[in-house]
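I am still learning, so would you mind making up any protein sequence you like and the tokens describing how it folds?
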Amino acid sequence: MQHRANAPADTIHEYYKRNILIPLLDHLISKLESRFSDQAAKSVQPMNVLPIVLRTKGCTKLAEVMQIYIDDLPSLMTINAGIHAWEVLWKTKEECGLPESAAQTLKQTDKMLFPNIHTLLRILCTLQSHRANVRGPSVD
């Protein structure tokens, strides 16, 4: 009994509210804040490299992503040209033929032609696999 929450209360309703409900809500709020923090939002920025997202948001978001991961990019001299070529490549293809995931896009990306995009896709695939491992296997 010494390790349990045992805040004094006058009624049973008040006891459960103080010892179970309020700590539970505090825990849920802290988990939601950490899940949707600014850092978590930045971690999904590489999704802007995907052709489906690129068609809707354009290359301005992709340029922002490049700046976030600038220390990881192999070819800083070709960032702007690479972004433009990447946008032209996917805007000219039919929408039904676009890759639907980061892994599919990575398989279709030439590492020599798009070194920075290839690196961003590898980062995105790594982030996605890390999230899947953190959450654990899905139960259907």
